[in-house]
Design brief:
By secondary structure, this protein is α+β, with helices and mostly antiparallel strands. Helix content is 23%, strand content 27%. The chain contains 21 helices and 47 strands. It has a six-stranded mixed β-sheet with strand order 10-25-24-23-11-12, sandwiched between helices. Strands 15-14-13-22-19-18 form a six-stranded antiparallel β-sheet.
Length: 959
């Protein structure tokens, strides 16, 4: 909605579209009072009636459709869009989403009942899918930074539109930075050594911001190297630096309640005015905190201003960024805004429905196929669709309200018409829970029980289909919800064997509260109030209908069985909750094996937000398919692929690990040392990154480089011919990888350098050419603190996936080889190591800088600096901090190879952010180059060190 324009305001310069935007912003900023400017720092910005300016708020969720505002077109989850590997498709999906955002802005009420729905969209999510157990895996595109950046850029461009001056919507990148765990997310720290920071986590954000496609970013809940992301210097040093180099600016918002967390959960600052001041100065422009209560946040910022913690310039800088965005969204030029005429008819329009079907179809991945697919209704007309997702679709937290649902069984029925028969079986047991005390069934009804992993169950009233849930007001139980989609999920339970094991009874335990169902002695009602098993009611599990037997019978009577398994997007793997593993739920795995035992012609369809270890299915079934929760058209899309009217065009955007593969700890963010993703994981995966089969065949030939050599700042063209050798049209994703040969650093096994999705007709061939700049071969050099391309040999690889290399060529980079690392007379950061053991990365100060400390002070921690030149070194200095004496020694040991150079005792400095310099003479290191080892004994921090050719003149000189 445009700002009203009273006659007195129309004549003001900021209302004049003929003036440059910067001049209009200057004029408006000068007219706003300090109180009005302070009020603009909160998510809910009040109107300024005297200037004819309406209210404004940040943030409409639009990850794969407009969320939380009612019925809207629901496209595949982001991970599903990632599986399309199709930038143009992702762009047009975002274009449709932003058109609906515009329609909601002008034609639909807000959830609060006042103001308008925001045109600033909190999407896309470009956090990398490092760990498939991450609860929000569905929100990201890929485990690879280049792939994520390309699709993220496409989504941003689709949201923003292509007008040179005005935005259709304003995309905001989430979540900066290194956010990939939900457990204790507000207090955990992601340890990022410089190479991981630059080559991996920042690499997903950098191209999008540098292209100008994004208009903003959201800071993440977590800490990085011990410092909360909301006060990270990386906001200014990296994000805004990239934007300004491209002539753009970013409007940075906080995540919900994160400013409060700086004091209340993270205890990083002593009070809120101090923390809010630090966040504002670090680059947070808008505080998403206390919901609509802006007074609390603004009061804290006002106090910060009064205490001298911030200045008016800090306030003005943030307000200027907001105003720039609002001008670009057309708020002050309603007659010139090219998107102002978008009407409500675009919401779930026929065109958007067709696009939802296309997107869902393009994202289906065929993981295995031994000639079972595509199905032939003439030979196998009877199809049994079995499993919890046989004909059911679910919304996730960031999806809109589904306007309609086409499940897989329904989609197959529609596609077959009268040429086949489709049966359904959920495979769920139907039970009654009989009270041992009263003999009465719980709720006076029976329930269909479904397990969603780790023994977590949902119970649906067999008569109404509604979920049993906890009623928060009185802790009673009621089956009153048709949809599970609330922040606090009250509809999940466990049936635990009674510890006394009397009469084969069970306890009913609510997952959210961890309390048990009990009989209220006052009125006899069942309430979830028991704190211990001893006070809980015992229940008999009365089986009325055997779900596995039903599934077995359906499979026996069919020619083909399609078993549809996977997760519920709101249970066991969602925002605030990581998965504990990657196995299918036990009852789902058992159901699959039961069906396959009687019907060998069984295909597994995994409908999920994340990968599963489906090792048994891969070994024993003829076909395995994956789709994300792909929105309203999921069933029609799957039917098209299963029946062969569409080619399976998706490719995996992340690795599917084997069930016996011991994954690294979820909080180990060092992909290099931990061995995360296809780049560094050594064990063979079940299905690799980039994998996906087609119903046709593709042949690659004639890989050519435009030159065999290139300079360190050069580029070559890489060409390959792709041919469709089958009898059907199909899509192939040509994937270009690079690999360093004999690298001096721990290089990736291979790394994606480019990709292109190609559609070919039978017999058609096409030459595909990539431009490969040298920067795609670069690594972060900790010696120089910059990206560098080492001279030497590289392999250029054309592949079907990260594990299926079809063609390779040698490429030589020419240039001056790097010299050994000279440390004498140079300031070396402790974090710029080459390798380490048992360290943790921490903050040097609250404002900036990183340091290292032992992960466990009871055990030594080591840093390795490879092949260093210590010629002429006579003394060693280190910058250290030690908060308290603690137990045991605090000592720093320095060795060149096996030769001890010196040891230094670390004094108490009184605070972890209070630093001092310790100095000691060194023994002669000998000639040549050495591996330098620094060993930290005890509880202290090390920020940096220096070797000198002479003793420091004084303590001040050392500092």
């Amino acid at each position: 909605m445009a700002s009203p324009s009273p006659s007195s305001a129309v004549r003001l310069p900021f209302r004049d579209p003929a003036l440059p935007v910067s001049q209009r912003i200057d004029d408006l900023l000068d007219r706003l009072t300090l109180d009005e400017r302070l009020a603009m720092l909160h998510q809910y910005v009040p109107a300024v009636p005297r200037l004819g300016i309406t209210s404004f708020r940040t943030g409409t969720e639009a990850l794969h459709g407009v969320a939380w505002l009612g019925v809207a077109t629901v496209f595949p989850q982001a991970v599903g869009l990632g599986a399309s590997w199709d930038e143009e498709l992702v762009r047009v999906v975002a274009e449709a989403v932003s058109a609906e955002v515009r329609a909601f802005h002008r034609h639909r009420p807000t959830s609060t009942g006042s103001g308008t729905n925001s045109l600033q969209t909190w999407a896309p999510v470009v956090n990398l899918l490092r760990d498939p157990r991450w609860g929000r895996n569905e929100e990201g595109y890929s485990e690879d930074p280049l792939h994520t950046a390309r699709l993220g850029t496409a989504y941003c461009r689709g949201l923003a539109g292509d007008h040179p001056e005005y935005l259709r919507a304003a995309p905001v990148l989430k979540h900066f930075l290194a956010y990939n765990n939900e457990t204790d997310r507000c207090v955990t720290s992601s340890g990022l050594r410089p190479r991981v920071l630059q080559e991996y986590d920042l690499a997903a954000f950098r191209p999008i911001v540098a292209s100008g496609a994004a208009t903003g970013a959201m800071a993440a809940y977590n800490l990085v190297n011990g410092r909360p992301c909301h006060v990270s210097p990386l906001i200014e040093d990296e994000l805004r630096r990239w934007a300004r180099q491209a002539g753009h600016e970013l409007f940075v918002v906080s995540d919900e309640e994160a400013p409060c967390n700086l004091v209340e959960l993270e205890h990083y600052f002593e009070d809120h005015p101090t923390s809010h001041a630090a966040a504002l100065k670090a680059g947070i422009d808008s505080f998403t905190d206390h919901r609509q209560d802006s007074a609390t946040v603004i009061g804290r910022l006002r106090e910060a201003l009064e205490r001298g913690l911030i200045e008016e310039d800090d306030v003005n800088r943030a307000v200027r960024r907001q105003l720039q965005l609002r001008f670009r969204l057309g708020e002050f030029d309603p007659d010139l805004d090219p998107y102002a005429g978008i009407g409500p008819e675009v919401i779930d329009s026929p065109e958007h429905r067709a696009l939802a079907l296309r997107a869902a179809t393009e994202s289906v991945v065929l993981l295995k196929n031994d000639a079972l697919l595509p199905l032939d209704p003439q030979r196998a007309p009877r199809i049994a669709v079995i499993g919890p997702h046989a004909d059911t679709l679910h919304e996730d937290w960031y999806s809109g309200t589904l306007p309609y649902q086409v499940g897989i069984a329904s989609g197959l029925e529609d596609a077959l018409g009268g040429n086949g028969e489709v049966s359904r079986a959920s495979g769920a047991d139907r039970i009654r829970l009989l009270s041992r005390t009263t003999g009465e069934p719980l709720g006076g009804t029976s329930f269909d029980v479904q397990e969603w992993c780790d023994g977590v169950l949902t119970l649906r009233d067999a008569g109404t289909g509604r979920y049993l849930g906890l009623v928060e007001d009185d802790a009673s139980l009621a089956a009153d919800r048709t949809l599970i989609k609330t922040w606090f999920v009250n509809e999940t339970f466990r049936l635990e064997p009674a510890p006394d094991d009397e009469g084969d009874t069970f306890l009913l335990r609510n997952v959210r509260t961890s309390r048990y169902a009990a009989l209220d002695p006052a009125d006899g009602r069942v309430r979830v109030t028991a704190e211990t098993p001893e006070t809980a009611e015992r229940w008999y599990r009365d089986l009325l209908h055997d779900g596995a037997a039903e599934a077995r019978a359906a499979a026996e009577e069919a020619d083909v069985a399609i078993v549809v398994l996977g997760n519920h997007p709101m249970i066991n793997g969602r925002e605030t909750e990581d998965r504990t593993g990657i196995a299918l739920p036990e009852t789902q795995e058992a159901l699959l094996r039961t069906v396959a035992a009687v019907r060998p012609e069984t295909a597994l369809v995994v409908m999920s937000s994340y990968p599963y270890a489906v090792d048994w299915a891969d070994a024993h079934l003829p076909a395995v398919v994956w789709t994300s929760h792909a929105g309203q058209e999921t069933g029609r899309a799957l039917a098209a692929v299963l029946l062969g009217t569409a080619d399976p065009a998706g490719r995996l955007p992340q690795t599917w690990y084997r069930g016996d593969d011991a994954l690294p700890h979820p909080l180990d963010y060092d992909i290099i040392k931990a061995g995360w993703t296809y780049q560094y994981h050594r064990a063979a995966p079940l299905y690799p990154f980039g994998h996906g089969l087609s119903y046709t065949g593709f042949a690659y030939r004639d890989l050519r480089l435009s030159a065999a050599d290139m300079a360190q700042d050069g580029a070559v063209d890489v060409s390959v011919t792709l041919a469709d050798t089958g009898a059907r049209p199909g899509s192939e994703v040509v994937q270009l990888y690079v690999r360093a040969v004999d690298a001096r650093y721990e290089a990736p096994r291979l790394r994606l350098a480019d990709f292109r999705k190609v559609r070919l007709d039978p017999g058609e061939s096409r030459e595909v050419t990539f431009r490969l700049p040298a920067e795609r071969l670069a690594h972060w050099d900790v010696t120089t603190g910059n990206f560098t391309v080492d001279p030497g040999r590289y392999e250029v690889l054309v592949a079907r996936s990260a594990e299926d290399i079809v063609l390779s060529a040698q490429l030589t980079v020419t240039g001056v080889s790097p010299t050994p690392r000279a440390l004498v007379g140079r300031h070396t950061l402790a974090v710029d190591f080459d390798d380490y053991t048992d360290i943790t990365l921490v903050d040097a100060t609250r404002a900036r800088g990183d340091a290292v400390a032992p992960a466990d002070p009871a055990h030594p921690a080591t840093l390795l600096f490879r092949s260093v030149d210590l010629s002429g070194a006579s003394h060693f200095e280190a910058d250290v901090a030690r908060a308290v004496p603690g137990q045991g020694e605090a000592r720093l040991e320095i060795r060149a190879g096996d030769h001890l150079l010196t040891e230094l005792a670390v004094p108490v400095t009184g605070d972890r952010h209070t630093w001092t310099t310790v100095t000691a003479a060194t023994a002669a290191s000998g000639d040549g180059h050495h591996d330098l080892w620094l060993t930290l004994h005890g509880d202290f921090r090390l920020a940096s060190f220096r070797f000198t050719a002479h003793a420091p003149r004084s303590k001040e000189a050392a500092e």
